[in-house]
Amino acid sequence: NPLQGAQFVLAAHRISQLPPDDGAEVAFAGRSNAGKSSALNALTGHRGLARTSKTPGRTQQMVAFSLPPLPQGEGEAPLTVRLIDLPGYGYAKVPEELRAHWKQEIDAYLHRRRSLRGVVLISDIRHPMKEFDRMMLDFCFATHLPCHVLLTKADKLSRNQAAQALAALRKELAAGGTQATAQVFSSQTPTGVDEARAAIVTLLQT
Ligand code: GDP
């Protein structure tokens, strides 16, 4: 697992508090309760890495996790790599002011962060493409950032229903003219974990 060995670095309320903008990083975004923390834990193979919660709406922060450096070509220094967990909202009632703060902060982060290589968007397969997801896709489109969508909680649907949801999303993404990719995922069964890890490593090395 190339994402094994992830470690908590810091939690930040604004982008200026994030680790130095060097190397490469991938950001995780998702509506609250979509299953983002569970996905981070499954992908890194670290059960307690991101705090999962049944009660959405807890304090929101951006959280930086370091990964072991990725080996590069001969004669090149290994690449410093990170995962950034972006705050999610949209499920529980979040005060309008806080929502606006994070919308602006996420937008600024996507525009300014030079080490950012792409976004992993976590979306509940039963309720995909809510307002938060559309906003993230719009931001990625505007900043030319690759976006990879994990349709998570796939274990809640039959195989057939999950495949249909994926096909519908891919069709919608293509119609919207985005370069975004998508896959089925579950932190529980687990499903699609290797595929997602490979997508993340590809983003980091782009
Ligand atoms: P976050 O708010 O996006 O970080 O969501 P969490 O990871 O905390 O998950 C929210 C809820 O969904 C928790 O009750 C999780 O146990 C549940 N959950 C997350 N991922 C999955 C999944 O793949 N399958 C199922 N069945 N439940 C999940």
Automatic annotation (TrEMBL):
UniProt protein name: Probable GTP-binding protein EngB
Record Gene3D superfamilies: P-loop containing nucleotide triphosphate hydrolases
Stretches assigned to the EngB-type G domain: 22-206
The entry's keywords: Cell cycle, Cell division, GTP-binding, Magnesium, Metal-binding, Nucleotide-binding, Septation
Family: Belongs to the TRAFAC class TrmE-Era-EngA-EngB-Septin-like GTPase superfamily. EngB GTPase family.
InterPro entries recorded: G_ENGB_dom, GTP-bd, GTP-bd_ribosome_bio_YsxC, P-loop_NTPase
Cofactor(s) named in the record: Mg(2+)
Job of this protein: Necessary for normal cell division and for the maintenance of normal septation.
GO molecular function annotation: GTP binding; metal ion binding
BP-aspect Gene Ontology terms: division septum assembly
Gene: engB
Cellular component, GO annotation: cytosol
